[in-house]
Amino acid sequence: MQHATRGLLAATLTAVALAAPAVSLAAPTVTVRIEGASATLLEQTTVTLDGRPTPAPGNCPANTVAAAIEKATAGNWDRQAFTSTILGESHTFTQNDYWGEWLNEKYGGGACSDVVAEGDRVVMMADVSGSSFEPTVVPLTLTGAPARVSPGTPFTVQVDKYTAPTGSPGEGVKAPAGGATIRGAGVTTAADGKATVTLTQRGETTLKASLPGTQTGGLVIDSRSPAVTVCVTDGADGFCGTTKPGQPPAPQPTTLPAPCQTLGDDGLCGTKDTRAPGGSIASVTEQQRFARGKGPRTLAGRATDAQGIAKVQLRLTRTNGRTCQRFDGARERLVTTKKCGAANATFFDAGTSADWSYLLPSALPKGRYVLDVRSTDSTGNVDRTLQRGRNRVVFFVS
After folding, report:
1. Which of 93, 87, 99, 74 is nearest to 1 (CA)?
2. Quick one: what percent of the chain has pLDDT higher than 90?
């Protein structure tokens, strides 16, 4: 799954970070919005995650931005670690365009690694990279609109923009969005981001702010806000759930139970469980470097599966010059091997907890390390596919 951040763009242009931190057991409810180059592909939609990793080839951990996109799009995206297509629209950097990820109006650090919590807001937007790999298409917010208003009664709205000047994950500098057009109201914001709106047409009106793109040449994409609905009524005209005098009340909508949801091979809804669990490493990130004497002692991460985790195993190998070693779980120490490479080492048990951790007897010495995690679910499915940054990390101790 993809979100191209500044550092990743410098290396791969459209890569997304795959390092996966531990994720919460609770399945959060979040909102997801997908903004294409010329139109909104998915307006802000509320979804509740199900605690499962995304399907292959991404295999992103549960409760991440990637899992939210999977849920909101019903799987209609390419599920790739280097995503180029969402809801049928592709951005492959041929015009410096890519899919930008934002979480709570802050520039994302990778859809496979950014963990979502209850109430979080996810936005994926078609973007064009700036000269310093900073995003040029940014989230807008539209606030101040009442849910209900009387016809002809003016109200003031505020449009703000959130920028990431250096393109670093976590940036989200808030500023008024002057010159933004508010569709549905026919007004433009002043320099302070404010505009006065007056609606006279009774019933629901959808307001949505947009700010012209600032790119020069090539693909130009507007920044947009989520849509906001305002219902116009005098309280007794039959609009917005009201009733005209002398008429019966409007019928109340009925809520149908949600259908059982399954990927078809996860053991849910009566299906046979043939899906391997998703494992990730949280305590060490890909290519992380530790100072001398500061090597990690605790190895930790998370394994996720709808049917539960039965076993988590680790494999740790070290090379330092011509010396090759593996960690022996029975003897709890590094032992020298005749052959180098992770394939010549064995896995050792790290417990049965989904949120696993393993305490090493001492800090790791100088060397290059490869740490692998292998998870087995309660029906015997094994996560055997190793992916750098997810269930395999390479790190160094000086």
Report:
1. 99
2. 62
Same domain? For 116 and 149 the reply is no
**Do 150 and 204 lie in a common domain?**
yes
By C-alpha distance, which of 48, 55, 42 is closest to 88?
Answer: 42
Query: What does the pLDDT average to over 54-67?
Result: 86
Instruction: Find the CATH number of the domain harbouring 298.
Output: 2.60.40.1220
- The CB density around residue 186, as the number of other CB atoms within 10 Å, is 9
In 3D, which of 71, 80, 102, 89 has the Cα closest to residue 14?
A: 80
Three-class SS state of 6: helix
For 256-286, letters b (16+ CB in 10 Å) and e give eeeeeebbeebbbeeeebebbbbbbbbbbbb
Q: pLDDT confidence of 258, banded at 50, 70, 90?
A: low
Average pLDDT on 286-310 reads 88
The total number of structural domains in the chain stands at 3
Helix, strand, or coil here: 269? helix
**Domain finish residue from 100, 128, 156:** 128
Domain presence at residue 94: yes
145 with 231: CB under 8 angstroms?
A: no
- CA separation for the pair 180, 159 (Å, rounded): 7
**357, 300 contact by CB (below 8 A):** yes
The tokens describing 250, both together, are 């409007």
CATH number reported for the structural domain that contains residue 54 in this entry: 2.170.130.30
Residue 83, φ and ψ in degrees, nearest 5: -70, 135
DSSP letters along 58-119, please? T-PPTTBHHHHHHHHHTT-B---TT--EETTEE--STTSEEEEEEETTEE-S-TTTPBP-TT
Cα angle, residue 337 at apex, residues 334 and 343 outer, rounded to 5°: 100
d(CA 173, CA 189): 19
CA dihedral sign of residues 59, 77, 69, 125: positive
Task: Kindly report the pTM of this predicted structure.
Answer: 0.62
Band of pLDDT at residue 354, cut at 50, 70 and 90: confident
Domain that holds residue 351: 278-397
Question: What is the predicted pLDDT for the residue at 19?
Answer: 36
Structural domain ending residue among the three candidates 232, 250, 268: 232
Q: Are residues 363 and 297 in the same domain?
A: yes
Task: Tell me: cis bond preceding 135? Omega within 30 of 0 counts.
Answer: no
